[in-house]
Structures
1.
Amino acid sequence: MRVAIFGTGYVGLVTGTCLAEVGHEVVCVDIDQAKVTGLENGVIPIYEPGLEPMVKANHAAGRLRFTTDPAQAVAHGEVIFIAVGTPPDEDGSADLQYVLAVARTIGSHLRKPAVVVDKSTVPVGTADKVRAAIAATLAERGADVDFDVVSNPEFLKEGAAVEDCMRPDRIVIGADSPAAVEKLRRLYAPFNRNHERIVSMDVRSAELTKYAANAMLATKISFMNEMANIAEKVGADIEMVRQGIGSDPRIGWHFIYPGAGYGGSCFPKDVQALARTAQQNGHAATLLDAVEAVNERQKAHLFELMLRHYGEGALRGKTIALWGLAFKPNTDDMREASSRRLLQLLWDAGAMVRAYDPEAMDETRRIFGERDGLVLCDSADDALRGADALVVITEWKQFRSPDFASLRQRLADAVVFDGRNLYEPDDVEAAGLAYYGIGRGRSI
Ligand code: NAD
């Protein structure tokens, strides 16, 4: 099938690559000339496990092309995806300017029938706006071309995006037209073998499904962080509590890890946008507001533990080794990362940070540039040079089993702040280090 994809970010690039991998003819279009030129020359703009060889192989095979020319992309696509960003507007609602700009672009180039598929995460009712924008642009041209607008939200996880795309748990298709559903069924047939993964529904339900999924996951995280903070106050260990509740199949093991707060390009903005949609429709989303408030507070929690250890004002002049910068492991994405809040709090307190992340160093450099108070290090070990304390904020595998005896030698103040509960307090303390985790009331 001939596919065009607008937006070559995490979602567009991975989707396009996976569709090419199963034999479709894909043209990816982006307004970012540097990104497109890079991709045409084998430079992959993001880090995702398994993505690079797949992009290169499909590009070499001629099934995956990159362009900045929307006319070429629209002329190519019988299925046209919109996979551009939907960042938060000032009031927290989703900013649809990029999605609607693409809709108008499609309208101004469409010459033959197509199914337009919204893959960006967009508020309920957006498909109607996309349809209206395409229709208006067609009308301006005096053109009359059949098209459908379908909602097909994306559920891939950064860090496992290729795997998720190749083996999806479900493929949600929201459409009013049976022909459009059929077309997407054929497109996704290679990913829908062995058992049925396609859940087809009306457009609005599909649009809401994406927000409901992210809001549920964010709720689980904030719930556990709330429990962790209670555990800390009452002298209980949240890791014991986690095991006690996760074994209940109604609760389950997934997404019940307490930590330094959720970040990334999706949960924070999607929880906010859903709350805003609710409000605009006359419903106060009390739970969603609380999920967000708990997360905001949690992002400062590690710093509060540091203040508790050092005392107010005593972080001035300290050198902190920071392990992890990405918002989660296996990605270089730092959008809304908890590390960013911590860095700011540490700088405001007069501390210096020696930071290391296995994949996010370029991104950190791009965001902060050269600045006082930040030394970008070549390795986890390098970050420890001259450090007073260690903070771990991203749970990369390589941070999981440090030599605590060596840490004791390296860290002048002999203290570890573990923002992801990677370590057993007893192990750390046995090496003569002070240990602070999240919700580990027994050890604080
Ligand atoms: P991104 O910021 O990584 O990429 C968006 C791309 O769109 C950029 O390369 C940008 O240059 C391009 N773009 C903007 N305007 C354009 C236009 N008019 N024509 C062509 N390209 C244009 O975004 P992303 O992380 O891939 O997210 C895209 C959407 O998917 C968002 O709505 C997001 O909420 C949703 N989503 C993201 C994830 C994720 O893990 N990142 C997962 C599921 C859903």
2.
Amino acid sequence: MEEILQKYYGYQNFREGQGALIDYAVEGRSALGILPTGGGKSICYQVPGIALGGLTLVISPLISLMKDQVDALTAAGIEAAYLNSQQKEAEARAIERGLIKGEYRFLYVAPERFDKNDFRYLLSRLDIRLIAFDEAHCISKWGHDFRPSYRQVVGRVMSLGAPCMAVTATATADVRKDIQSLLHISDDCVVETSIKRDNLAFKVDPTFQKDKMVRRYIKEHPDDSGIIYATTRKQVEALSEQFRDFKISHTIYHAGLPAEVRAENQTAFVNDNCSVMIATNAFGMGIDKSNVRYVIHYNLPQDLESYYQEAGRAGRDGLTSECILLYSDQDIRLQQFFIGNTQDEVIQDMKKEKLEKMVQYTKTTQCLQGTLINYFNSEEHLEPCGKCTNCLMEADYDMTTEAKKLLSCLLRMKTPVNRSVLTKVIRGESFPRHDFEHLSTFGLMKEYETKAINGFIDTLLFNGYVDEIDGRLSVHPSAKEVLLENMQIMTHYHPVDYNERVTIHTLV
Ligand code: ADP
Ligand code: ZN
């Protein structure tokens, strides 16, 4: 197998997971590979395909990808062809004749092809030794991109009697089980490598000013290539119009554009003639652009599978890249509306559950990368990534002194007060209730900005030292350990560089 890898691809070693999957296929056992995007899934069925001889049938839902793959194989001296609906009839007939003569080693087909009787008859006459399912998650009802026609293919190819190789980058436990039972793949033939991508920095930003944030980001990264995903065509168009007004060079992609325009825009982006792409999720599948430095989601996607797949288009070259998720409550409502239109009740419930997980992602205080990975594989234990918003917000500032000041101020006021009263008194701002001005704690933290003080109050609330009832703050008895026993309190809010550390949350 190594010889094939070196001879046809020029690579020295197999990557993690490839070797095992290839061995299963060569032994005639069906296998499932869950490998990250860019992990080299094609080689997992191409190398055994070459080794087994005969024909390898590759089923792929992506027409755009077929041509690239066939071109690459042909360039490496391996006879390959594809059959899809966009092809001229004469061309398809010529390929079919070649197939019968055994001229090809690989045939790429779209699932829809199997609806035709004559195609199924053709297959029965060919020497098929391996059947590959690319983007195999599309077979599963539990997948985020379920394609019924793809699922139907399964029954039709199983009768061909060849082993199957299913590959995908995103499969939750349910999807994996579903693929396994459909394709009769045993547990010991499932190879799952970590889908962790160390070079990606995940950010979540609940800003109310998405437009400004995006424009500023692009201005600050003028030389970088990036994708901005929006949910609807209308939003893509609106953003594009706004960018035109601000003279930000960009291109767009969505399913409502004529095919030539889409192709042109895609090429401009892929060839680096245009560095910013604004698109719906119609853009990206099968596009191999390695230097995407950021992926910004202007809206909340429908689930974490879609999010990870789209965000994962950043940094394929291994260099540090950012994946930023902007969202608002309105986005959640839009997704709920889409889900409401789903006919099948079981699928509707499943989608609701997936959306719930997506929303939880925006709220978690845990490492974002860890949260994503655990969604797909709950057994994988991860160290905090050190790059995501939550890891960067790690509590590393000792606010014990500030805590003492705030708690004693609150105690001296003797009555529960709302946040802005406490903040004004401790900053020494003039105030209608003049009796507070005589407190020894009045103006005790005048050098701090209101925002920073609010951050400290958040931490005190979070740790339970302060109670908030009906918007009014009071000291909890446990605060004794801070005031009398010198208990240390750490926070991720910094008094000085507060603005810098949390810029992502507080854009002006
Ligand atoms: P995927 O389909 O998993 O996203 P591809 O099959 O397109 O990924 O492979 C991604 C890139 O990695 C391709 O350029 C491929 O040639 C390269 N690649 C695959 N396997 C190896 C390997 N063993 N060594 C080096 N490069 C590899
Ligand atoms: Zn992290």
